[in-house]
Design brief:
5 helices; two-stranded antiparallel ribbon
Length: about 450
């Protein structure tokens, strides 16, 4: 039996001083190379408010307010499509939904080299996260199909130049990065098809099409030019990639529901940038970065009237993904070679309570491991991926003609990571870089069941 098809299952709508610097002449020309890997996470990834490395936890207000749990709990179309395509066959009906999220990250970058020390806040602002999806359940058929168009990444970093902060001191003559800004957008298109093998078992499959864009200034992914520094990384376009996802969903006669899914790596073309070398000659800079494999298992229980409890466990295979699997930078050019992340686990839990025929409320929580190992702390010490906990709350309200309004709020407490500054010849005594971050997030959406 599908969640939401009996009274016991609950709501039918459910189931991120200049002078002192001059004294550190030994650092000049090398410091930009040193911190390239320390800041790469801050600028590459869209997870400053969400955790789980590069993977966003949720794609709708309902899914967000359940802590991202959806693999074995199909209470909305977006969460079902994104985390387990097999579960769209268990939705109460066909569905179309639209939502918009706003991530409000608050981060700061602090560093010290010798006696020079400073802390700078990022002026990021709100980051929009739009999503939409459609699911169609064919009458008198075991087939269902759907299409999701989701934002799976999106953030901005905007640090001003700061003469008191060694990392953000001007590239020339101090060897920092100067004004540091970047914008990341990652989207995914997910057409899916599900088939109900029996009253208890469904399977689902679909390709995934991913597109992304990264603009960074300075372009720490490319070479460091002596006397000039890193070039600007604005001459780029959206890159494309693809993969697939598949899942299975199993229900019981005792109100337990189970699911499992796998999302393949997203094999993407390299990021490409039109830049200039130290003499002004045109250069094309490339950087390989794929999206990791994600495996999920989940369960839910709807045995108490008007209640649903759900939990997901996920595995993110960063350690075997190009761009994440190695750490360091090229000592000859100063360009980043990778991040050196570990594969990690994530746990998301949520509970839904139907108050009456129109109103349902939810609470959720998500925890994820930090993908940055101690051996790679020097290459990721400015990473915003220090956020490991997130609490969520949300509600849905039914209006006329099967329309549903939904909203969710998330709070991610502050975390921080600190590590020594290291270059290709070893650790620089008395140096460290620290990134601190916390975040608020809001999502609102509207859906119609038919």
């Amino acid at each position: 039996m599908a969640i939401g098809r009996s009274k016991r299952a609950g709501n039918p709508q459910k189931c991120r001083s200049a002078e002192n610097n001059r004294g550190d002449q030994a650092m000049k020309g090398h410091f930009g190379q040193v911190i390239v890997s320390s800041v790469i996470c801050t600028l590459l990834m869209a997870s400053i408010a969400w955790g789980q490395g590069v993977g966003l936890r949720a794609v709708s207000p309902v899914n967000e307010s359940m802590g991202g749990a959806a693999t074995g709990c199909p209470i909305d179309a977006a969460g079902a499509l994104n985390w387990n395509p097999a579960t769209i066959s268990a939705l109460p009906g066909s569905d179309i939904s639209f939502s918009l999220g706003l991530i409000l990250p608050y981060s700061s970058l602090e560093s010290q080299v010798g006696a020079n020390h400073g802390r700078t806040k990022s002026e990021t602002g709100a980051v929009p996260v739009p999503n939409m999806c459609f699911v169609r359940k064919i009458d008198n058929s075991r087939w269902s199909y759907g299409l999701g168009m989701f934002t799976i990444g999106g953030t901005q970093v905007n640090y001003p130049c700061d003469l008191t902060n060694p990392v953000l001191a001007p590239q020339i003559p101090y060897g920092g990065l100067g004004r540091l800004s970047a914008e990341v957008q990652i989207f995914q298109i997910q057409p899916s098809l599900a088939y109900q093998l029996s009253d208890h078992v469904s399977v689902g499959f679909g390709p995934t099409i991913t597109m992304g864009r990264l603009v960074a200034n300075p372009l720490f992914l490319g070479p460091y030019y002596t006397g000039v520094g890193y070039a600007a990384g604005t001459g780029t376009r959206y890159i494309w990639g693809g993969g697939f996802q598949a899942g299975v969903y199993y229900t019981t006669d005792v109100d337990w529901h189970f699911g499992a899914s796998i999302k393949s790596p997203q094999w993407c073309e390299p990021f490409r940038y039109f830049t200039q070398d130290g003499s002004g000659n045109p250069v094309v800079t490339k950087f390989d970065l794929d999206y990791p494999l994600i495996a999920s298992v989940g369960c839910s229980y709807s045995g108490f009237e008007d209640w649903i409890f759900a939990c997901d466990v996920r595995y993110f295979d960063y350690a075997n993904t190009p761009g994440f699997d190695t750490a360091g930078f090229d000592p000859a050019t100063g360009a980043a070679t990778g991040l050196g992340w570990n594969s990690v686990m994530s746990v998301g839990c949520g509970v839904q309570r139907r108050i009456n025929e129109k109103l349902s409320v939810r609470l959720g929580y998500c925890f994820n491991e930090n993908p940055i190992p101690s051996s790679a702390s020097a290459y990721n010490t400015a990473s915003p991926l220090v956020i490991q906990h997130c609490m969520t709350v949300g509600a849905s309200y039914a209006i006329e003609m099967n329309w549903m309004l939904t909203a969710a709020y998330s709070y991610c407490p502050e975390g921080s990571v600190t590590g020594p500054v290291v270059n290709h010849v070893g650790q620089i005594p008395g140096s460290w870089v620290k990134n601190s971050a916390y975040a608020h997030a809001f999502q609102a959406g509207i859906s119609k069941r038919f």
